[in-house]
Write a structure and sequence with these properties.
There is one protein chain. The chain has 312 residues and is α+β, with helices and mostly antiparallel strands. The strands form three sheets. A five-stranded mixed beta sheet has the order 2-3-4-5-6, with helices on one face. Strands 7-8-9 form a three-stranded antiparallel beta sheet. The longest helix has 34 residues. This is DUF3298 and DUF4163 domain-containing protein. InterPro entries: DUF3298 (IPR021729), PdaC (IPR025303), PdaC/RsiV-like_sf (IPR037126).
């Protein structure tokens, strides 16, 4: 071999080594970037398997206002306001579509104790305004001031997939007193059957112990309690200090959302408390026949630009 051949081999070998180093460095940078976007996660996060074939819906706004009121967004008037989805189509699922429409109508017509209070929404709104007029008349007879009444209900679509729907129902009511009352509840539906989904449907058998442990840790983090804090020593009113999940939960694209309403855990001053559990923390106990999951894929970005993982 002449000296030029030897030099060529050396140059080629050096180029291969540099390429390998560069490739390794690139992979390390990408991995570091991905890890930099996660908090408290030892693996890539998961999401519901995405599919663009979702149902179509529009938002309907209905309201009644006191005489001379200009707009339903006014703060100083008596009003009753409803905002809710109207599902236009659910391909090849007419029976399920009718069932879901009935469930939404029932939500709109329920009174404070969950009973159907009117035959339709027009009657419900008229009833509210008539009750206010009667109340105002009685107060005037005793020369007492009568404040405005307000009832607002908003139903939002949180999750919209071919097989799952999650609705958020938020109510605000003021008919006198120190403050308005608010409630938030959720309705999670299986669009294949029209049935309401419970936690038992979403998880495998004997899931409770693991879910409670993970949820208690998430709750304590949310309210800034140390992990080893005994709940009986706090101002949160858990029976005998044992953590309990709220009945309110919603299904998100990357995790479950749990919600305590005011008064659920103590006095009104505590307010509402919500926390989220990402799917990667509970993946081992999830019923994937209902919640079909896939890893979330990230493009490499600078760790400095993203320091936490947000999920729905």
């Amino acid at each position: 071999m002449n000296k030029w051949g030897a030099i060529s081999i050396c140059v080629f070998s050096l180029a291969v080594v540099i390429a390998c180093i560069d490739n390794k460095t690139t992979r390390e940078v990408e991995q570091t970037a991905i890890q930099g976007t996660l908090t408290e996660a030892e693996e890539l996060p998961y999401q519901l398997v995405s599919n663009l074939d979702t149902f179509n819906y529009s938002i309907q706004l209905d309201y009644k206002l006191e005489k001379n009121a200009k707009d339903h967004t006014q703060k100083d008037i008596t009003k009753i306001v409803f905002s809710y989805p109207i599902i236009d189509t659910l391909p090849q699922q007419n029976a399920v579509l009718d069932s879901i429409r009935d469930r939404i109508e029932t939500l709109l017509l329920q009174d404070g104790i969950g009973q159907k209070s009117a035959k339709d929404l027009e009657a419900r709104m008229t009833q509210f305004m008539e009750e206010y007029k009667e109340h105002k008349k009685e107060m005037e007879e005793f020369d007492l001031p009568s404040g405005n009444w307000v009832f607002e209900m908003t139903i939002d679509v949180l999750l919209n997939t071919p097989t799952l729907m999650s609705l958020k129902i938020h109510k605000l009511e003021f008919t006198g007193g120190a403050h308005a009352n608010t409630w938030t509840s959720y309705l999670n539906l299986n669009l294949k059957t029209g049935e309401v989904l419970s936690l038992d449907d979403l998880f495998l058998e004997n899931y409770q112990t693991e879910l409670l442990a993970i949820s208690e840790a998430a709750f304590k983090q949310k309210v800034n309690l140390d992990a080893d804090t005994n709940l009986i020593e706090t101002h949160y009113e858990f029976n005998a200090g044992d953590f309990m999940l709220p009945p309110n939960f919603s299904i998100g694209s990357t995790g479950l959302h749990f919600h305590y309403n005011p008064y659920d855990l103590g006095p009104f001053a505590l307010g509402a408390i919500s926390f989220k559990i990402p799917y990667q923390k509970i993946r081992s106990i999830i019923n994937t026949n209902i919640l079909e999951l896939e890893p979330i894929k990230y493009k490499a970005t600078s760790p400095k630009k993203e320091s936490s993982l947000e999920f729905n």
